[in-house]
Amino acid sequence: MSCDTRRSSISSDWEELDAVSGCYGSYDDTASIVSLASTLTDSEDSDALPEPTTLPIRERVLESTDLPRYVDDDTDSVASDETITEDLLDVVVEPSMLLSSLESLQSILSEIIPSGGEQDSSHTQEAASGLLEALHRLLGTIIDLKEVVSGYAKVYEPDDPFSAALQLDPLLYKWCTTCALKLYKLQAEENLAVKSESYSNCINKLCEDLGVFLPIFRVDLDEYQISQLIFPRYPADELPSHEVYLHRRHRSSNPEPLVEGAIPDLRRQLYALKDEIGKTSSIIRDCIVTEAFTADMRTQLHEIQALQTHTFETLGVLLSNHGSDWIEQTIAGGLSYADFTSLDRKNIQAFTERISKFGCLLNDLRISSSYKMGDFEPIKSRKGVPLSGQKYGGPADAPSEDGADFISTGLGCEGFKAILLDLNSTLKVEVLKE
Fold first, then answer.
1. What b/e sequence results for 223-257 when a residue is b if at least 16 CB atoms lie within 10 Å of its CB, and e otherwise?
2. pTM for the whole structure
3. How many helices, marked H, and strands, marked E, lie in the chain?
4. Which top-rank group of organisms is this from (predicted)?
5. CATH architecture observed for domain 81-227
6. Is the pLDDT of residue 279 over 50?
7. 109-142 pLDDT, tens digit each
8. Potential cystine with 196: which of 73, 131, 153, 297 (Cβ 3.0-4.6 Å)?
């Protein structure tokens, strides 16, 4: 096909299109946008150009640049991106400012809670009770967060906010802002009886959102405090001689300060428990190879050793967990960080004392039995009470006075196994063992 033929064909096509659509095509770059007729009628003049219409460009630009608004009807949504107008990922969180926001939230809650359960109609009492419970839960969550943020405030460096010091997550600002919006709206709500359940669900969701990350903030703070502990070190070329070391060891010096707090104290207790289990396991290994013990006694010691091995390994995991480790362990059904921090330190100390006393007694029996050869009766304690066959009444039975006789508490091999089973249940050892 020739070039002229192709051009004439294209031209005729355009003419047909003009006849159908009722408008002439324009090849000018400045042509206006025109509206095409949707249907054809006999009365339409195909030669008349329609009035040009222009798009409301200015209005659409303004619409796209308006700040996102808080949707009043969106009571159930929690912390959506529309409620916050800034990207906070690069914002440095000052703990003092965050504490001020949390105190403001606590003040608002103290005003709302007294009137939260006041409903005139009896059928709204249940919804009001749920809302009041959610408000109390939010108040407890804010108090817990304030405790963590106060710890961050102690290590915050205002002169160098971008240093390697511990930093809070900037999205905490977003969480506080969302809480404030919900609480202000709750205060101004006129039809609260109808929307109580919606507000309850919203507030509970806020608590759940923070509850996922609050344990991680605590773990990060604990690890940072531990990393700042100062231990005495000597340069390689200035190591003291043996005589100088003895002199320094015996002279009076100020001990290194300990990190104060419930969590560091709990960790020290667990480390002490782990050490005692390790010592007792070593004694049990020596006793198993001692021929002076009966076969039944050695069998029981094997069972105790197996229980202690699982306990020892579990303590090692718990004391070395990081934030992500706690989350994985919680998902697997193991001890969560919240359960870890709520462990009773007195019970842990009682377990440690009993394990230590059992190891000391067993070591004394091993030493005394090493002098016996040949046939002998089952080994008895110094007071004539058999080591096995005793009962265990729980960690509260641990002697409180120094030097109290271990056997007088009625603890033997069976009782000691009961102690380890109780301890393993507390630490959820079975989950980690699987």
1. eebeeeeeeeeeeeeeeeeeeeeeeeeeeeeeeee
2. 0.42
3. 14, 0
4. Eukaryota
5. Up-down Bundle (1.20)
6. yes
7. 988 887 755 555 554 666 678 888 889 999 999 9
8. 131
